[in-house]
Design a protein that fits this description.
Elements (H helix, E strand, L loop, with lengths): L5 E5 L5 H19 L5 H9 L5 E6 L2 E10 L4 E8 L8 H16 L3 E6 L4 H7 L3 E5 L3 E6 L1
Parallel strand pairs: 4-5
Antiparallel strand pairs: 1-2, 2-3, 3-4, 5-7, 6-7
Length: about 140
């Protein structure tokens, strides 16, 4: 795979407008389909959830997405991956997941995530060996390892 020029950097308060707009543009369709709220307060709550565990995804100097993860001693989690629509389909999500899983394998820890039903990212997670361990009316909880 060619070098995508993807880097991660810690979020800052100055990133909040970008993160809000990113969430709306990448998630509204999936949330509406699942019957989940898409109001401003709900978006802000999700943007601020585990804020210090968030990274801005950059392609060169351009901010193109969000990668939020948790790393506990016994288990890691992918909390959110959001990539601007104009950058989707270029292997960026695959790259982010692959690198995170590589590090989890080195640390010898399983990885979990939750994904809304109907989100095409489910196919990506299956390709990396994630399996459904629980389901709600709106989402799937998946685990690898």
């Amino acid at each position: 795979m060619k070098n995508l020029g993807i880097t991660l950097r810690a979020v800052t308060p100055a990133d909040e407008p970008f993160l809000f707009d990113l969430r709306a543009v990448t998630m509204d369709e999936h949330l509406k389909r699942a019957g989940e709220p898409t109001d401003e307060r709900t978006h802000w709550d999700r943007v601020r959830y585990r804020y210090n565990d968030s990274c801005i995804v950059c392609c060169g100097s351009e901010e193109i997405g969000l990668f939020k993860s948790l790393r506990d001693m016994n288990e890691w989690a992918i909390v959110q991956i959001q990539i601007l629509p104009t950058y989707q389909g270029r292997g960026i999500g695959t790259h982010l997941v692959r690198e995170f899983l590589r590090l989890a394998d080195v640390a010898d820890v399983p990885v979990k995530l939750s994904v809304l039903k109907g989100n095409p990212a489910i196919n990506l997670y299956h390709r990396f060996g994630f399996r459904v361990i629980n389901a709600t009316d709106t989402s799937l909880q998946m685990r690898r390892g």
